[in-house]
Structure formats: C-alpha cells, structure tokens
Write a structure and sequence with these properties.
Length: about 140
C-alpha cells in the first residue's frame, strides 16, 4: 500500500456523487421546510429558520473541516490497522463536538414547547449536515484519484 491517500481508498459514502446527493437533499429539505414555515405568516418563524440554518452551516462546516483533517492524518494508519480512529489524535474531541453540536439541539427539542425554536432547530440540522458534506467534499476533491 502506498504512503499517500487516494480517492479509491475512501469508503463508498466518501465518494463525490454521494456528497452531491447529500448536499442536494439537505438543500431541498431546507427549501421545502422554509416553504412550509412561510405558510404560517409569522415572520418570527422565518427569522428563526434563517438563524438556525446559518448557525448550522457554520458549525457543520467546522465539523467537516475537522473530520477531513482527522481522516487526512490517520486514515492510512487505520487501513493498515496500526490504530483505530478512536485512538487518532483529535478523534475523541471531534466526537464530543459532534455529539454536542447535533445532540443538544435535538435533545433540547424535547423540552422546547415553542414553534419558533423548533423551526430553528430543524433548519439548524439541515444546515449542519449540508455544510459538513460540503467541507468533506472539498477535501475529497483535493485528494488524487
């Protein structure tokens, strides 16, 4: 096995068409969600949705960049079974960040009883997943075939 990472070594879910599919589906989901929310005629719902989507994009892109750095540094070692991803530098912190970034809003939705916050959380999740896939796709595109 060579000492450089190539695209063909990546798993199926890290292929460019899969990233494009995820990005398109999350964007369409957000557009449909905004369309459904705009039927309510409350402007605060749209502002909460936009705020949630923007926050999701920022944190999702951060998570995607962090994941791509982790994979770039450790993926070949994992394939060679020299270490597990859990042992890789930064893996535990990345896992904690992801659990907090996605888990807290979802867990908080259980206790939130206002429609405005729930609308923002749904948009946040769409933004997070979409931006995470964009960041990972940009990294994969830099890897030689």
């Amino acid at each position: 096995m060579k000492d450089t990472l190539s695209r063909r070594l990546l798993p199926f879910y890290m292929k460019l068409p899969i990233f494009w599919a995820f990005i398109i589906v999350t964007f369409l989901g957000e557009v449909l969600w905004i369309t459904a929310v705009s039927k309510d005629n409350r402007t605060d719902l749209l502002s909460w949705s936009c705020f949630g989507y923007a926050a999701g994009i920022v944190l999702g892109f951060m998570q995607g960049k962090w994941t791509s750095r982790l994979w770039e540094q450790s993926y070949l070692q994992v394939l060679r079974r020299k270490l597990t991803f859990w042992e890789a530098k930064g893996a535990k912190t990345l896992t904690l960040f992801t659990c907090v970034a996605l888990g807290l809003p979802i867990f908080g939705a259980i206790f939130i009883e206002t429609t405005e916050n729930l609308v923002g959380i749904q948009s946040y999740i769409f933004g997070f997943v979409g931006a995470m896939n964009v960041a990972l796709m940009l990294w994969v595109r830099r890897i030689p075939k």
